[in-house]
Amino acid sequence: MEAIIKVQNLKKSFKQYKKEPGLKGTLKGIFKRQFFEVNAVNDISFEIEPGEFVGFIGPNGAGKTTTLKMLSGILYPSSGEISVAGHIPQKRETQFLKSISLVMGQKSQLWWDLPAMDGFILNKEIYEVDDNDFKFLINELAELLEVKDLLKIPVRKLSLGQRMKCELMASLIHRPKVLFLDEPTIGLDIVVQKRIREFFNYYNQKSKTTVLLTSHYMEDVAELCKRVIIINHGSKIYDGTLEELTRKYANNKYLKLIFNRPVELADLAKFGEVIERDKDGLKGTISVSRESHTKVASGLLESLPVDDLDISEVELEDIVTKIFQER
Amino acid sequence: MIKYLKIYKLFFKNSLALLASHRFNLLMSAIANIVWTFGQIVSLQFLFTRIDSFEGWSINDMVLLLGFGQLFVYIMFVLYFNNHGELQTKILEGELDTLLLKPVSTQFFISFQNVLIAQIIPLFIAVAPLIVIGIRDLRALSVHDVLFSIIVLLIGMIVMYLLSLSLSGLNFFTDNATAIRDMVMNTTDMSRIPLTFFPNPIQLVFVFFIPLAFVTYYPTLILKSPQNMFLILGLEIFTLIVFYFISQFIWKKGLQRYSGVA
A-B interface: how many C-beta pairs under 8 angstroms? Predict the structure, then answer.
């Protein structure tokens, strides 16, 4: 199958200037500025196949949003080649713009003082969506996202979660082939985050839309993406499946324990590295090597008053943190 | 073209809804503009009690000049003035992203998305009587002259739109160039003075660099004493072509430099 997104040696640098603090620095800056280049994206290459749901993760300033903006044609690359749905994004051809959508958790495309429905109607005309198709899609999306009663209320009166759901609807009116999601769940409560994740999962499976997601919430990535691309300081450091990532970077497993009477920290530490332990000593998590985890588990059951034992993989968040700390 | 008309209709409809929610503020600004226009007429009448003519222009000629000036200013306000102001902010704050994703001309979208409907009220109330008063005592006008005057005015408005767009686009290249547009657009006040009043270098500025002469002075001159009309039109079309290419160049190069961050 031919890739729908192709990125080859992509680079993006920004010119910035330094300003020394204080009045002296301000005056100096007016006459002579010290410019320097920041490499936001540094030689990234990858390909994504149609229908894939890929997580694009990295710490703040890693170059995730810059990459997404180049893929959607907002920013021009400094060098390198991009092809999305058979188009070169920076040319911003009408057919290309009709085939993609970018949802930014921190930016809105809806009119603040008007109901979301007015924004949808505007998008309908902009994307030249057929009347019947529009009605069908609005009904379907509103039902899935549980916002049917909110479409006629001015956007500014909606909660953050309700607004994000409406933003999603506005972005999907033209049935994009490729969907870029930039922190779509940022600032939302756990319930809404979960609802939106369920929606993305359903939408991706039903419409076979290709999705590239950036998120600081590892739960989003773990729940939705089979494949992840990790970048740091503008460079790609991992591209593969989540399972592979866990195997490669997590040599340990977590044993999550519940005790029927308090257990001392020292007793727990005998079996492995204590990741967490509650104040009462009734709950704890230890990290043990992959090879020895079954042996340690049986030892724990024999020596300590274990009421419940759960063996789990290391959290994605911990793996990613470990990767970034090592670099 | 039909697509763009449909979109503009929605811009208008949405702006009308906004007017309804902010009606008091917008109506007060419309009233202030009406008062300002009538203040200008009263000032002119007071001035002409002491002089017979200004640079060979009678009070009716001056009122007509003022009328064209107001017509230009209000149409500019209704259509794009505030939108271009917002464009500058959007470029500087990296808020152009969502607009750049739309499969329509970004220049069209950003220039016309908010229609300042409240300014249509002073446009009709203040400008229409001005023109009636202005042309009352003028010689019998021919349809040809009136049409020519309107054509010169319309092309002049497009040139001024391109100038405003270009100046807003300068923000792509600097940290903040809003003062340049503010300074240039503030010169619209000068359009209420006959061009010949200014020294030659300033006249050149108002014809080729800030071509206000095409939205006030020349449309009035064509009605007052038609002469060299094709030369005026030729000059104006030349200016239009130059400004078109400048604005497109700034826009194209500007988008390449757009960083999308504040």
Answer: 67
Residue A301 has pLDDT above 50, yes or no: yes
- The overall longest dimension of chain B from CA atoms, in Å, is 59
Query: Which of A92, A104, A126 best tests the B interface by mutation, with the highest count of B CBs <10 A?
Result: A126
Q: Does B98 touch chain A (CB under 8 A)?
A: yes
What 3-state class would DSSP assign to A237?
strand
Cβ atoms within 10 Å, residue B175:
8
Report the distance separating Cα A169 and Cα A173, nearest Å: 6
Average model confidence (pLDDT) for chain B? 88
Asked if B18 is an interface residue toward chain A (Cβ–Cβ < 8 A), one would say yes
Give the lowest-confidence range in A108-117, A123-132, B39-48, B203-212: B39-48
Sheet holding A178-182, edge to edge: A100-104, A178-182, A210-214, A53-57, A227-232, A235-241
Best B23, B98, B114 residue to mutate vs chain A (most A CBs within 10 Å): B98
Compute the CA torsion angle A191, A192, A195, A196 (nearest 10 deg).
Answer: -150
Which residue type, as a one-letter code, is found at position A137? L
Q: What is the mean pLDDT of residues A226-239?
A: 92
Q: Using the beta-carbon criterion (under 8 Å), do A113 and B255 form an inter-chain contact? A: no
- The residues, any chain, with a CB within 8 Å of residue B36's CB and separated by 6 or more, are none
DSSP A87: B
Instruction: Report pTM.
Output: 0.84
- Write the residue in A76, A97, A118 that is nearest to B102 by C-beta: A97
Distance from CA of B22 to the nearest CA of A (A): 10
- Cβ of B1 under 8 Å from any chain A Cβ? no
A116 Cβ neighbours under 8 A, 6+ residues apart: A110, A147, A150, A151, A153, A155, A158, A166, A169, A170
Q: Is the pLDDT of residue B216 over 80?
A: yes
The pLDDT confidence band at residue A13, using thresholds 50, 70 and 90, is: very high
Q: Contacts of residue A79 in chain B, CB cutoff 8 Å?
A: none
Say if residue A212's pLDDT is above 80: yes
SS3 A165: helix
Asked if A14 and B259 come within 8 Å (Cβ–Cβ), the reply is yes
User: DSSP letter at B195?
Assistant: G
**Least CA distance to A94: which residue of chain B?**
B103
Q: How far B93 CA sits from the closest chain A CA (Å)?
A: 12
Give CA–CA dist A58/B4, Å, rounded.
40
Burial class (CB in 10 A: 0-12, 13-18, 19+), B142: exposed
Query: Which residues in B lie closer than 8 A to residue A182 (C-beta atoms)?
Result: none
Among the residues of chain B, which ranges form H helices? 2-21, 23-47, 59-79, 81-93, 97-100, 106-112, 120-122, 128-136, 143-169, 178-186, 200-204, 217-224, 229-257
The residue assigned the tokens 């006030």 is B216
